[in-house]
Design goal:
The protein has 208 residues and is α+β, with helices and mostly antiparallel strands. The protein has four helices and seven strands; from the N terminus they run αββββαββαβα. The strands form three sheets. It has a three-stranded antiparallel beta sheet, with no helix packed on it.
Length: 208
């Protein structure tokens, strides 16, 4: 036998090995595909039931500067799959599961206290709120800023959206004798879009 015949035999052997390897990989892909299909069908059916039952979440979140968040329920359960093309066809490659931990309770985050004198401006008052929040004072939701005295407990909240409301609050404070305590309420500050974009750029640079 000549050199050409030897090379042909080696080539045929390598082709046979490649064929065996491909068939083995295809067999594994089929097995994984079947398992993921069954998993998806099971989780998808389970999620529909959980969305009706809304079972309590076992998780408790202790967030810095916010507090403990518990008593949540599981809802909006969602299941989806992703296919991947392998060798000659598409197979199930991933199964994704997601849900939300939810509550209808209103979370009030307490900040402060801080001292403020009646001869100081509304701008300084807003700045003190922003410092205690903390956030940029331009992000404060001033149009929904409310205040009330600590006593009596059922005292009504009053709007303080501008200088007029601020001076009305000062007039109420001046009618009281000595120092007094008041609470200020507002929704969470608006999102700092500029900082958010800069943070994303910073993270992207770190990952690069």
């Amino acid at each position: 036998m000549g050199l050409l015949d030897d090379l042909k035999k080696q080539a045929d052997a390598l082709k046979a090995q490649d064929t065996d390897k491909t068939e083995s990989l295809r067999s594994t892909a089929v097995s994984v595909d079947h398992s993921l299909r069954r998993t998806f069908l099971y989780l998808n059916a389970l999620g529909k039931q959980l969305n009706v039952v809304q079972m309590p979440s076992p998780f408790v979140f202790d967030l810095p500067t916010v507090g403990i968040i518990d008593g949540l329920i599981i809802k909006d359960f969602f299941c989806d799959f992703r296919s991947k093309h392998f060798i000659d066809k598409d197979y199930y490659g991933e199964v994704h599961v997601a849900y939300r931990c939810w509550s209808d309770k209103v979370l009030t985050i307490k900040k402060g206290p801080f001292f403020h004198h009646t001869n100081e401006s509304f701008a300084l008052f807003k700045q003190r709120i922003a410092t205690g929040t903390p956030c940029n004072f331009k992000l404060l939701v001033i149009l929904q800023l409310n205040w009330k005295f600590d006593k009596p407990l059922g005292a009504p909240c009053r709007l303080m959206t501008n200088d007029v409301g601020y001076h009305a609050m000062l007039s109420s404070v001046n009618e009281k004798k000595g120092d007094c305590v008041m609470f200020v309420y507002m929704p969470p500050p608006e999102k700092d879009v500029v900082r958010y974009k800069l943070d994303k750029i910073s993270v992207a640079n770190e990952d690069a």
